[in-house]
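Moderator note: this is an archived Q&A kept for reference. The question asked for a predicted structure of one protein chain; the sequence and the answer are reproduced below.
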Amino acid sequence: MTGLLIFVVFIALMVAGVPIGIALMLGGAVGIGVGGLGWLAIPNNFYSGIAKYPLLALPMFVLVGAIFDRSGVAKRLVDFAIAIVGRGPGMLPLVAIAVAMFLGGISGSGPANAAAVGGVMLAAMARAGYPPAYSASVIGAAAATDILIPPSIAFIVYSVMVPGASVPALFAAGMIPGILAGLALIVPAVWLARRHGFGAAEADEPRPPFWRALREATWGLFAPVLILGGMRAGWFTPTEAAVVAVFYGLFVGMFIHRTIRLRDLTNILVEAAELSGVIMIVIALASIFAYAVNTLGIVDPLARAILDSGIGSFGALAVIIIVLLFVGMVLDGVSIFLIFVPLLMPLMKAYGWHPVWFGVLLTYMVAIGQFTPPVAVNLMVSARLAGVRIEQTVPWVMWLVFAMGVVLVAVVAIPDLALWLPRVLGY
């Protein structure tokens, strides 16, 4: 009865428009009060929810995204990619996806990636004859690979919640699925462009000289090598890597490309602090909800009912995927993790799913949700920059959702797509 009351309160508050963090906290507080767990459990879990070392990396990677958004790296990467693939129908969408994937190796924020790539690519794609709704769809979907390709804020949050899933292992596990997702997006993006005759004027645009484009893009190209290579070499931890990335980005933006001035630092820091603060507060408030659910044993009967239903491991996975894909349309990734990970952990243990592989699956579903209407944070950013409504992107974006769905099925069927690289690297 207490468990039902917790979820009724939470859902009622969500329907009433209460912010998700507050709804989670109040739902958990009701469970703590009715279950007689002691009111001191609320402040204790609020603090313990964020007093975890891996979370130190979160605000730093948010700051990295804000810095590289203004550093001019995206524009130079775009020029370099065009110098490689050339001009022609379908090439600019390919470049947009490739650059978004590369920026995923620098920043852990999908919306920041969509803003950086959209700020550079949308005008160029419009000049080449691509419809704004199509361009916004491609960029919003491409930016979703950001949370799969390390470093990833989503993986950091998941690692804090799930014992046995370290940040380095998750970072390595997301690499191959993230690259496959990007490659899968390229197929429908190029096909749609050529089928509908988009980008006819693209061939008339000049192609940047290769060596000059490479020279100007070198500083951006070196960023993921420094971040990921430094972690692999043992020079620094993921948290320290985030700090190194911040100073590297500032150096490139202020002294190499000179796109960041001293007076810009205040806005950059405020923007990163606000976003980090929102994420951390939601995590802290959700910890109260998770404590109530776990301590009162609410999840155990639900898990037992699924286990006794006889649907098996793949059947349970299918149900989870369908539910989370729909939930991903209306909730952001961090909220999905905070609500569902405590509920799904008993199933993960009962079926023997590898926690790193399962984390990649959950993150992949969140990535799809980031560009699936009606509420899609990446698509919101790219659509706003393109000056179109989200509903205008539906005819284009659903092809991209399908393409990423194919890779999701492959990761479910072949766990080694996620687990091979962590095993090789010794994680």
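Archived answer notes: The two ends are 42 Å apart (CA to CA).
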